[in-house]
Amino acid sequence: MSAGATDPSTTDAWASLARLAESYTPDLRAQLGDAGFVADRSLTAADLHVDLSKNLADADVEAALFSLADEVSVAARRDAMFAGEHINVTEDRAVLHTALRLPASASLTVDGQDVVADVHKVLDRAYAFAERVRSGEWTGVTGRRIETVVNIGIGGSDLGPVMAYEALEPYRQDGLTCRFISNIDPTDAGQTLKGLDPETTLFIVSSKTFGTLETLTNARLCKAWLLDRLPSGADADDAVAKHFVAVSTALDKVADFGIDTDNAFGFWDWVGGRYSMDSAIGLSLMVAVGPDHFADLLAGFHAMDEHFRTAPAEANVPLRMGLLNVWYTNFLGAHTHAVLPYSQLLHRFPAYLQQLTMESNGKGVRWDGEPVGYDTGEVFWGEPGTNGQHAFYQLIHQGTRLVPADFIAFARPSYDLKDEVDGDQVDVHELFLANFFAQTKALAFGKTPDEVRAEGVDEALVSARTFPGNRPTTSIMAPALTPSVLGQLIALYEHITFVEGAVWGIDSFDQWGVELGKQLAQQLRPAVSGDAAVAAEQDASTQSLIRYYQENRR
Ligand code: F6P
After folding, report:
1. Does the global pTM surpass 0.95?
2. What's the CA-to-centroid distance between 67 and ligand 1, angstroms?
3. What's the whole-number mean pLDDT along residues 269-290?
4. 150, 299, 452, 488: which one has the fewest Cβ atoms less than 10 Å from its Cβ?
5. Which residue's CA is minimally distant from atom 9 of ligand 1?
């Protein structure tokens, strides 16, 4: 797989898509008036019901997209990923997050190692640890049971656990709370530790590399906070052993930090940080929701993996959604993609997807090092509905930019509340879902000038009150937001991201783009602390900004 990357823009399918785009006239009203068209595009992937019919793609476009996938060998690359080939070319690594959710009965040997056995060995230890914390068997150094778990990590070692902790709030154990520290802004540690009782607090230091400045700094801050506040007489080593555990691929560095490796949970270099929440990186979540629910989450991931691996192209939801995103990005000029969950519990889902999609596909060279001559990556963003409706939907409805949007909703509410209006009981979830259905309809159909006039609107206001319509959306529904469904949703977006990266011929699994800023921060630190010589080496703008900082520091 690592030889040459196909330049997708040289394929016949790309040329066909370019031609189709030139003459393409969207007509979602016609599409949605055709029950057969809608039925053919209402797909099932595990427990997800996915309606693709409101996308700006007719049968010709879809056929050309499938041809594109064939010409750049998306299926072969997918199979290479599942088999553990080193498709992360620039780091010479396998990409095997899918192995994290294989059942214990499966087997997969990669680079001479049975990875399924390894995964389940760690998982069993992590589950046992989570149970000890949940049951109160694991106590702090003074013998009190743990009430708060603080995950210290950033990027993939933070965003997944936080997002899922929020999403699965109804599944959490009472009396146990998780908090998360990620930012090196001291405000984060300062605020998060506020009000905590050191005797009942357990820290999980989560870092794939155990070399990330933010995480190590925050871990040291938390260690000092703990040791300063525990009752005198508590032995420091015992305190660290009872209040600090770690999750990392670098167990030697964990030991150097002073954490007993008996209390550390490993994973492997074939798990990318942004694909790691279903490894031991999810330890805080395991403690919060328990091993059984975590196992359901993994089963959900696996169900979507199997769908992606085995479903034929026409029925393959991640493949089709990924290809549609390529169509919007490379042929219809979209730059961004909105993800709009109609679930307050998914309020961190768009932030999670930002790392997943943008760290993966924000690349300007193909995996063989050749520069791309076409756009890659989409800016993913979003907020839960209906809040977004009262904030940024205006631009999606009437603005000049094309913003494809994924709408996500659940048939059953997580909180079933009724509102009493004029003596009637109103199901609030139904009110909520009516908005979900209304928005995709409004975006698709719009409102013509004649329809506006028919409402008696003054002619001077007709254009301002006209909605162009033909704004593309995908609707994703599931029976309820369960751990399994959450796993399915995450895996869906992992594989959409994969498909896009495979078409673009890029390495979706490295992240060299985050290095330069890290290096410069290290170089600049002395200047920030007053080293005039280092400051003098900087460009004029950086010097002036540092001068401003120093003048206003105190
Ligand atoms: O931002 C770069 C990155 O390497 C991410 O890919 C990763 O999730 C994050 O930093 C944290 O890394 P680590 O888990 O090694 O601390």
Report:
1. yes
2. 36
3. 98
4. 299
5. 155
